[in-house]
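Form P-L/3: holo structure prediction, ligand zinc ion.
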Amino acid sequence: MIFILLGPPGAGKGTQAKMLEEKLRRPQISTGNILRKSIQSGSELGNKAKVFMNSGRLVQDDIVIGLIKERIVEDDCQSGFILDGFPRTIVQAERLTETLGEMNLSIDAVIDFEVDSEELINRLSGRSTCLTCGAMFHKESCPPLKDSVCDDCGGELSQREDDKEITIKKRLDVYEDETAPLKEYYRKQGNLKTVQGRGTVQEIFSKVCAMVS
Ligand code: ADP
Ligand code: ZN
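OUTPUT (holo model):
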């Protein structure tokens, strides 16, 4: 059971991936979260990635491919997983296909979240993220009960460095140039399913559930 969540930054992949993780009992694998953890831990890899992430560019393919290869051989991935934010380039997609092939695995579906860019900018610029558990809040649509405190774990909320306005624009451009071509790549493989990412989190989740069952 392998699912890929595809879509621009702010489309809601992370939120839906977390919900799917619970429903399907398969882990969410978010390269963004893994990279942010390496930055926090001060590792060499984290320091390398930081410059790219904070300026809205992609981290090098070799780095993220390496992270994914390490992650998917862990015990909890053996009956499947949900990829969130990977692959993001054609090279990454090709290497994933190759790696899964070697493991005798294949992708069940690629779910593509479609949201217009005005809505994306609004979502990202009002967003705050828990430094501890990764939960996300929005100042209008989903405010935390207590200012700057995570409802789920009590951790501290902060605005991601790359959720500043100019960086958001850069991320959207990078998405169009490098990631959007994956839609065609997976359409050709017969795996692509498109979901309209407007609506409440629950409405979208119902549509996603129909696609994974
Ligand atoms: P979003 O989807 O909202 O942009 P992510 O947490 O998925 O958030 O990614 C944040 C940043 O992490 C990206 O802008 C990029 O710099 C880096 N990143 C995450 N996944 C990848 C990937 N598969 N390839 C390259 N860079 C990545
Ligand atoms: Zn939290």
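COMMENT: Residues 130, 132-133, 135, 150, 152-153, 155 surround zinc ion (ligand 2) (CB under 6 Å).
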